[in-house]
Design brief:
Elements: H1 20-34, E1 39-44, H2 51-64, E2 68-73, H3 84-91, H4 108-111, H5 113-130, E3 133-138, H6 145-157, E4 163-169, H7 180-190, E5 196-197, H8 203-214, E6 217-218, H9 220-226, H10 233-245, E7 249-252, E8 255-258, H11 267-275, H12 280-289, H13 298-305, H14 309-319, E9 324-326, E10 332-334, H15 337-344, H16 349-365, H17 370-378, H18 382-394, H19 396-402, H20 404-417, H21 425-438, H22 442-455, H23 459-475, H24 479-490, H25 497-513, H26 517-534, H27 537-553, H28 557-574, H29 576-579, H30 584-593, H31 597-614, H32 620-633, H33 637-653, H34 657-673, H35 677-692, H36 699-712, H37 716-723, H38 726-729, H39 735-739, H40 743-753, H41 757-773, H42 778-792, H43 795-808, H44 811-825, H45 831-848, H46 851-861, H47 884-894, H48 899-906, H49 910-924, H50 929-939
Helix pairs in contact: 1-2, 3-6, 5-6, 6-7, 8-10, 10-11, 12-14, 16-17, 17-18, 17-20, 18-20, 19-21, 20-21, 21-22, 21-23, 22-23, 23-24, 23-25, 24-25, 25-26, 25-27, 26-27, 27-28, 28-30, 30-31, 30-32, 31-32, 32-33, 32-34, 33-34, 33-49, 34-35, 34-36, 35-36, 36-37, 40-41, 40-42, 41-42, 42-43, 43-44, ...
C-alpha cells in the first residue's frame, strides 16, 4: 500500500505504472524550478486514483535536482487549526533551512496566526534565495482556512521567486464543495492554473500493477477481476492484497491466478479481508486509531487502547505491513485516508461514539485546536454534541478570526442534531449566522438568520444576529442592507452599550456611502460616546473615523482631520481592538486632501507596518486606496495605477467588494489621464458587474470617473447627463472638489460644452463655497480660482490657480490651469509668458504620464511652441523599456533583495513590488528572478 506525501517513507520499490506522460510533465516542471522559475500546478482525480503516488515521484525528482521540498498531507481536521497545513509543510522542509527555524517554536501559528502568516512570506523569500523550493500539499481540499488564504496571497507574491507549488486534490462532492481547500482550487483554475487530471488506468497498466503487487506475472483471471475496480489503482491494489490474504490468488509456475468463487466485491470488503488477517489486538488497534482522523502519536494510541508501550510496539509493527506508515513527525498515520475510512466504517455506532469521546479528551489534553476537540465531541452522542456547541460558542469571536467557515459548518451540524424544542436553539442560530457572515457566506447567513428571526429571539440575541449580518454586508459593499439590519437591531431597547456602539459604528460608514451624511455623523458620534462608556473602544474609533469621512464628504476638511487625529489618539492609547481598526488609514487620507503630503506618506507607511503586525488583512485594500490617492495627488500616475491594481487584487481576494469600487474608480480615472481608454472601459465594465450585485459606491468614486471617460470619448452631453443630479448636490457634498481640485474646472467645462451654463455656474459656486469653508487650504482656493477662470475666461484667475497649485505641489491641476491660461492668453498676452506656460504644462503632463493631456496640448499648440521630448527615458541606457518605478524595483532585485526588503527600501507595499515585477518580467520576456538580476548586472553596471 503506497504511503502518503509528507507521511513517512513511501514504497518506491514498485513502479508507478500508467503515468509516463504525467511523470514527464513533472520532470520538465522541476527542471524549470531548479533553473530558478516558480509556478503552480494542481493534480486532480478521484480518491485512490494515484495522486499521492505521483506526488512521491515529484518529491523524488525534486530532491535529485537539488530542490528543497516542503510537504504535508492535509486532513479533514486541519480545517480546525489556523495555518497548520502550510506551517506544517514548511516546518519539515528538507533540507532544513534557518528561514523556517522559527516554526519549530511551540505552534506560533496558533499563538498569533496572522502574525505567522506575515512572517511566512518573508521566510519563503529568504528560503528561495538559498535554493529553489517545492511545496507539496496532498489532499489540499482539507487545508485550513488560513492556509488557503495564505496560499492565495503567496502564489502571486512569490511568482518572481523559484517557489513551485504542487497540490493534489479530489473533485468536490456533496458537502465538501464549500471547504476552503476546494475554493482555493477553484480560484487557481480561474487564475489560469490548468489541473493535471488523472484518469483511470488502462488494461495493460492494471495488468502491470497487479503483477507488481503479486510479485509475479498474472493471468487473465486476475486482470478480469481487477477490471472490476474500474481502473482505480488503490482499489485494485487492495483487492489483489485481499485475494492474496484469503489464498484466493495463488502463484504456480511463476504465474498468479484467481481460484474459488467467493470473491470480495467492494473496497470496504477488501480492506476488511486484509484486516481480518491481523491478530485481534492489532485489528482492534487499527479500528481505534481510525477515529483520530489525523496522524497520531504512540502515546495517544496507547492511551486510547490502554496498551503499555511494550505491548503496543509489536501491534504497530504488525499493522504497518499493510495499513500504517511512519509520520514525518515521528508518529503514525494511515497509508491512505480511504483505507482509514474503510477501517472506521467497520466500527459499530456505539463503539464509535465511545471512542470519539475518549479521543476528544486526549485531544484536549494535547492542546489540540478547539474545533478539533469539538468535532470529536459532536460525534460522541447527544451529550457530547452539547459540549461541542458550548465550546464553539464560547470561542466564537476568536474562531471567527481564523476559521469561521469550519466553525460555522460545525455549528450547522450541531443545529441539525439539536432538539428543535431546545430553548437555547435561537441563540445557537444567532451565533451560527455570525460565523457564516464572517466567512462571507452571506446567502446562507441571511437564510438562516431569517429563519431565526421568524422563530422569535430575545432582543439581545436578535441584535447580535443582526449585527453580524450588518458587518458582513458592509464588508461586501451592501450598504443598504447594512443600514437595514443595523436599524432593526437598534430599535430594541436595553441593548448592552458595547453592542449598540458597534451597531452605530458600522451604520455610520454605510450611511456615509449612501449619501445620508447627517444621519451618518449622528451614528458616528453615538458610536464614539457609547463605545467609550461601554469600553468598546474599537467601535468608538470606527465611529469617529466615520465622522472623519462625513466631514470630508461635506467639505469640512479641518474637521475631517480633527476626527481622524482623535480616532488615532484613542487607538494608540487603548490598543487592542481599537488599534486594529487602524484609524491612520483615514488620517492619511485627511492629510492628503489638505496637501500635507509628506506627513501623509509617513502616516500611511507607519500604519501599514502596524497593520502587517496585527495581520489585519481587511485593511490592506484601504491602505492601497489612500496610497493611490496620495500618488495621484503628486502626479505619479504610473505608480498610482500599479498601487490601485494591487489593492483591487487584494480586495477581490478577500471579497471586500465595498473597497473594490473606489479602487476601480481610481484605475478608471488614471487610465483616462494616460489615454488608455480601452483599459478604462474594462474597469467600467468591472464596476457595473459589482453594481449589478448590489454593491454601492459614492458618486465621486465611480460616477465621476465614468463621466470623465465619456467626455474623453467625445460625448460631453452623455457625460453631463450622467452627472445631472451631481451638480445640485455639490454644495452639500463637495468631496470630489476637495479630493481632486482639477475636477472643479472639468465640471464647468463639461456643463458648458453640453450647453448647460446654470450647472457650470453651480460648480463654480460650490468650489468657492468649499474654499470659503477651508481658508487654510490652498488647493481649495486654487480649485475655486480655476473654475471661476474657466467660467469667466479670466486669465488672472487662471494664473492665480496655477500659482496656488504650484505652491502645494499638485502637478496635474497645475498643468490643467496652465493649459487653460495658455489657450486663453494666446494672442492677448506676451508670447513669451504664454509659451512658458505651455512648455511648463507639457513638461508636467509628460513627466506624469498624462498622455491624453500631452496629445491634446500638442495638437492645439504644438505648431506654436517647441514640444519637449519624452522624459529622459529616451537617453536612459539602463533598462530603457521600463518605467522609472519599475527600474527602481529591478535595480533592487539586482542587489539580491527580496520583495519585502524592496518594499521597505522603496517605501511601497509588497503587493506593489509584486505587481511591478509581473510587469517587468512581461516587458523583458523573462521568467526567473535570476534572469532579471543578470540583465541588471549586464545593462546597469555603470
Amino acid at each position: 500500500m503506497t504511503g502518503r506525501a509528507g507521511r513517512g517513507t513511501p514504497d518506491v520499490s514498485r513502479r508507478l505504472v500508467g503515468r509516463d506522460a504525467e511523470v514527464a510533465f513533472l520532470t520538465r516542471v522541476l527542471d524549470d524550478t531548479a533553473a530558478g522559475a516558480g509556478g503552480c500546478h494542481a493534480i486532480t482525480g478521484a480518491p485512490g486514483i494515484g495522486k499521492s503516488a505521483l506526488l512521491h515521484v515529484a518529491i523524488r525528482l525534486a530532491t535529485g535536482k537539488g530542490v528543497a521540498v516542503a510537504t504535508r498531507e492535509a486532513f479533514r481536521l486541519d480545517q480546525a487549526a489556523p495555518l497548520v497545513t502550510l506551517a506544517g509543510a514548511l516546518r519539515d522542509c528538507s533540507p532544513a533551512t534557518p528561514a523556517f527555524a522559527w516554526l519549530a517554536e511551540r505552534a506560533p501559528e496558533r499563538a498569533d496566526p496572522f502574525g505567522a502568516l506575515q512572517r511566512l512570506r518573508a521566510s519563503l523569500e529568504e528560503a528561495a534565495r538559498e535554493r529553489p523550493l517545492l511545496i507539496v500539499i496532498d489532499d489540499a481540499q482539507w487545508m485550513d482556512e488560513l492556509s488557503a488564504l495564505a496560499v492565495r496571497e503567496l502564489i502571486p507574491a512569490l511568482a518572481s521567486s523559484p517557489v513551485r507549488w504542487l497540490f493534489a486534490h479530489r473533485p468536490p462532492a456533496g458537502d465538501d464543495r464549500e471547504t476552503p481547500g476546494h475554493q482555493l482550487m477553484q480560484w487557481l483554475q480561474r487564475e489560469g492554473v490548468s489541473p493535471l487530471r488523472l484518469g483511470v488506468l488502462d488494461d495493460s497498466a492494471i495488468a502491470q500493477l497487479s503483477a507488481d503487487v503479486v510479485g509475479a506475472d498474472v493471468d487473465n483471471t486476475v486482470v478480469a477481476l481487477a477490471a472490476s475496480c474500474l481502473g482505480n489503482p488503490l482499489r485494485t491494489e487492495q483487492l489483489i492484497k485481499a485475494l492474496v490474504a484469503t489464498h484466493q490468488l495463488v502463484v504456480a509456475d511463476g504465474i498468479g491466478s484467481v481460484v474459488g468463487d467467493d470473491l470480495p466485491s467492494s473496497f470496504v470488503d477488501s480492506v476488511r479481508e486484509v484486516l481480518d488477517t491481523l491478530s485481534e489486538p492489532a485489528a482492534w488497534l487499527l479500528r481505534s486509531v481510525a477515529v483520530f482522523g489525523r496522524p497520531f502519536t504512540f502515546d495517544e494510541a496507547g492511551r486510547l487502547t490502554a496498551h503499555p508501550p511494550a505491548d503496543l510496539y509489536p501491534l504497530v509493527r504488525e499493522a504497518m505491513a499493510d495499513f500504517l506508515v511512519e509520520d514525518a513527525g515521528g508518529g503514525l498515520a494511515f497509508a491512505h485516508d480511504l483505507v482509514r475510512q474503510a477501517v472506521y466504517n467497520t466500527l459499530p455506532r456505539a463503539m464509535r461514539e465511545q471512542l470519539h469521546r475518549q479521543v476528544a479528551a486526549i485531544s484536549r489534553d494535547a492542546d489540540r485546536p478547539a474545533l478539533e476537540v469539538a468535532e470529536h465531541q459532536l460525534k460522541s452522542g447527544r451529550t457530547g454534541a452539547g459540549d461541542a456547541v458550548r465550546m464553539v460558542r464560547s470561542m466564537a469571536r476568536e474562531i471567527a478570526r481564523v476559521a469561521p467557515g469550519a466553525a460555522a459548518d460545525l455549528m450547522l451540524r450541531a443545529l441539525a442534531a439539536a432538539d428543535p424544542a431546545d430553548p437555547g436553539r435561537p441563540a445557537l442560530i444567532a451565533d451560527t449566522v455570525g460565523l457564516l457572515a464572517a466567512a462571507a457566506r452571506l446567502e446562507e447567513a441571511r437564510e438562516l438568520g431569517g429563519q431565526a428571526l421568524e422563530a422569535g429571539l430575545d432582543p439581545q440575541t436578535e441584535a447580535l444576529l443582526l449585527l453580524g449580518l450588518a458587518e458582513a454586508c458592509k464588508h461586501s459593499g451592501l450598504n443598504e442592507m447594512t443600514v437595514r439590519y443595523s436599524g432593526e437591531a437598534l430599535r430594541h431597547e436595553g441593548l448592552p452599550l458595547a453592542v449598540e456602539a458597534r451597531l452605530h459604528a458600522v451604520r455610520a460608514h454605510a450611511l456615509c456611502y449612501l449619501g445620508r451624511l447627517a444621519e451618518a455623523d449622528e451614528s458616528g458620534a453615538r458610536a464614539d460616546e457609547l463605545g467609550r462608556q461601554g469600553g468598546e473602544y474599537g467601535a468608538a474609533v470606527f465611529g469617529t473615523a466615520g465622522r472623519s469621512l462625513v466631514a470630508y464628504a461635506e467639505g469640512r476638511l479641518a474637521n475631517s482631520l480633527e476626527h481622524a487625529r482623535a480616532a488615532t489618539a484613542l487607538a494608540d492609547r487603548e490598543g487592542g481592538d481599537a488599534a486594529q481598526r487602524h484609524p491612520r488609514i483615514w488620517l492619511g487620507g485627511a492629510l492628503t486632501v489638505l496637501d500635507h503630503f509628506d506627513e501623509a506618506e509617513q502616516v500611511i507607511r507607519a500604519g501599514r507596518r502596524e497593520s502587517d503586525r496585527y495581520g489585519s488583512s481587511w485593511a490592506e485594500p484601504l491602505w492601497h486606496y489612500f496610497q493611490t490617492s496620495l500618488l495621484y495627488a503628486r502626479g505619479r500616475l504610473e505608480e498610482a495605477a500599479v498601487e490601485a491594481d494591487s489593492g483591487l487584487t487584494v480586495a477581490e481576494r478577500h471579497n471586500a467588494h465595498a473597497l473594490a469600487m473606489p479602487l476601480l474608480g481610481m484605475l478608471l480615472r488614471v487610465a483616462v489621464l494616460r489615454g488608455d481608454l480601452a483599459a478604462a472601459r474594462d474597469h467600467l465594465d468591472h464596476v457595473r458587474r459589482l453594481a449589478a450585485g448590489g454593491v454601492t459606491a459614492v458618486p465621486e468614486d465611480v460616477l465621476w470617473a465614468e463621466a470623465l471617460l465619456l467626455d474623453a470619448e467625445g460625448a460631453p452631453s452623455a457625460a453631463f447627463s450622467l452627472l445631472r443630479d451631481f451638480y445640485p448636490a455639490l454644495p452639500e457634498r463637495p468631496a470630489l472638489l476637495a479630493g481632486d481640485p482639477a475636477s472643479a474646472a472639468e465640471l464647468v467645462r463639461i456643463a458648458r460644452d453640453a450647453g448647460r451654463p446654470e450647472e457650470a455656474s453651480a460648480a463654480v459656486r460650490a468650489a468657492e463655497l468649499l474654499a470659503a469653508r477651508n481658508p487654510g487650504s490652498r488647493s481649495a482656493a486654487g480649485a475655486a480660482a480655476h473654475a471661476r477662470g474657466v467660467q469667466d475666461k479670466d486669465l488672472d484667475r487662471l494664473q492665480q490657480a496655477a500659482d496656488l497649485f504650484r505652491a502645494v505641489g499638485r502637478p496635474l491641476p497645475l498643468a490643467a490651469a496652465l493649459e487653460d491660461a495658455a489657450m486663453l492668453g494666446r494672442g492677448s498676452r506676451d508670447d513669451r509668458a504664454v509659451r512658458s506656460w505651455c512648455e511648463e504644462a507639457l513638461t508636467i503632463v509628460t513627466d506624469c504620464g498624462a498622455h491624453r493631456a500631452r496629445g491634446r496640448i500638442e495638437d492645439v499648440l504644438g505648431g506654436w511652441v517647441a514640444v519637449p521630448p519624452e522624459p529622459a527615458a529616451a537617453a536612459e541606457t539602463c533598462l530603457p523599456q521600463l518605467t522609472p518605478a519599475e527600474r527602481k524595483v529591478a535595480l533592487e532585485v539586482g542587489k539580491g533583495r527580496t520583495n519585502i526588503q524592496i518594499a521597505e527600501a522603496l517605501y511601497i507595499s509588497k503587493h506593489t513590488v509584486d505587481a511591478h515585477l509581473r510587469n517587468i518580467f512581461g516587458k523583458l520576456s523573462i521568467r526567473r528572478r535570476a534572469e532579471l538580476a543578470a540583465v541588471v548586472a549586464r545593462e546597469c553596471a555603470g
